[in-house]
From TrEMBL:
Residues 311-322 have a biased composition (Low complexity). The gene is 107361851. One of its GO terms (molecular function) is tRNA (guanosine(9)-N1)-methyltransferase activity. Residues 283-322 are annotated as: Disordered. InterPro entries: MT_TRM10-typ (IPR028564), MT_TRM10-typ_sf (IPR038459), tRNA_m1G_MeTrfase_euk (IPR007356). Its EC number is 2.1.1.221. It catalyses: guanosine(9) in tRNA + S-adenosyl-L-methionine = N(1)-methylguanosine(9) in tRNA + S-adenosyl-L-homocysteine + H(+). The keyword Transferase applies. It comes from Tetranychus urticae (Two-spotted spider mite). Keywords: Methyltransferase, S-adenosyl-L-methionine, Transferase. Residues 80-280 form the SAM-dependent MTase TRM10-type domain. This is tRNA (guanine(9)-N(1))-methyltransferase. It comes from the Eukaryota. The lineage of its organism: Eukaryota, Metazoa, Ecdysozoa, Arthropoda, Chelicerata.
Length: 322
């Protein structure tokens, strides 16, 4: 008797969700949707229905905040900072993401890699001095995926190469200035000053592979077989990780981009590597600032400086008057 009652309750809950999704119980049985799947579908439906309205509200709030700052402190946040293209940038260091590992990833991992590539492009585009960012072996599924999933991919300020990085950077290989970045490498990258000094004479390759842990030692083996140098980030010299030293593609790129702009390894690791990966991360969390909080604090500092400057100016004029 109790089992029947529980089944009826469960069926009743499924029917409520089905009605909200506009599905019949027959359709659910036919497509074998689980209760968990139906809940996720409903959550996505609600999100899609409300996201446009939420964005409008957020946009209005940002607009009101900018207006308030402009009227009270004379700060115009609407003025966009001019961005340099790669050709205009003084940063000529070459960093390439090698996309020749597509066959070793499933569809979900490929989608994740595409998001990481988008993040790399965004970081470089917003940098005060963008590096020379390359995508090599850009063909097949990854090329089609980027063109279909990333709006405006054709207009990205990025170097596109269909050929393998060994062919794209053939001259660098011959000169011995082609370096494949691998967490398994026995060699350490030099300090940031040396990275900057090398400039465009060197090219650094990041393996476009989402789950390196499954293919441990793969990138190192391929690099050694190809007769090129390898190096790893000096993470061990700056902090202790509680998990694998393998980082996401976008994290490795961001750290390298920071290095080409003169940001010390230790500072870059602290800002980029997720706190959950760092041993004694609670201590680090206390000195790390979340990006949102950091932005708000920066705005508060700007406002405070403006107020202090205005106060100083007014007091100065009173003194001169007296």
């Amino acid at each position: 008797m109790g089992d029947t009652s529980d089944e009826e309750k469960a069926l009743g809950k499924v029917k409520v969700i089905a009605d909200q999704l506009g599905l019949s119980l027959d359709e659910i049985k036919e497509k074998k949707y689980s209760k968990k799947t139906l809940k996720r579908m409903l959550k996505n439906k609600v999100y899609n229905e409300t996201k446009i309205e939420k964005r409008k509200i957020q946009k209005q709030k940002r607009k009101a905040k900018r207006k308030e700052l402009k009227e009270t402190l004379g700060i115009n946040l609407s003025e966009k900072k001019p961005r340099l293209t790669m050709s205009e940038s003084p940063n000529k260091v070459n960093i390439a993401i090698d996309l020749s590992f597509n066959s070793m990833m499933n569809e979900k991992e490929l989608r994740k890699l595409m998001k990481q590539i988008q993040r790399c492009y965004s970081l470089n585009r917003r940098s005060d001095a963008p590096c020379q960012l390359y995508l090599t072996s850009l063909k097949d599924e990854i090329a089609k995926g980027l063109m279909s999933k990333q709006p405006g991919f054709d207009y990205w300020d990025i170097h596109r190469k269909e050929e393998h990085f060994l062919d794209a950077f053939k001259d660098f290989k011959e000169k011995g200035t082609l370096i494949f970045l691998s967490s398994d490498s026995p060699n350490l990258l030099p300090d940031v000053a040396e990275i900057q000094k090398r400039g465009g004479d060197y090219a650094y390759i990041i393996g476009g592979l989402v789950d390196h842990n499954v293919h441990k030692g793969l990138t190192l083996g391929l690099a050694q077989k190809s007769g090129i140098q390898t190096a790893r980030l000096p993470i061990d010299q700056c902090m202790e990780l509680c998990v694998s030293k393998v980082l996401a593609v976008n994290h490795v790129f961001e750290i390298m981009l920071n290095a080409t702009n003169g940001i010390a390894w230790s500072q870059s690791f602290m800002n980029v590597i997720p706190a959950r990966k760092v041993k004694q991360s609670d201590a680090l969390k206390s000195i790390r600032q979340p990006k949102k909080e950091h932005k708000e604090n920066s705005e508060n500092v700007v406002q405070k400086d403006q107020v202090e400057n205005q106060s100083s100016a007014s007091s100065g004029s009173e003194s001169s008057t007296t």
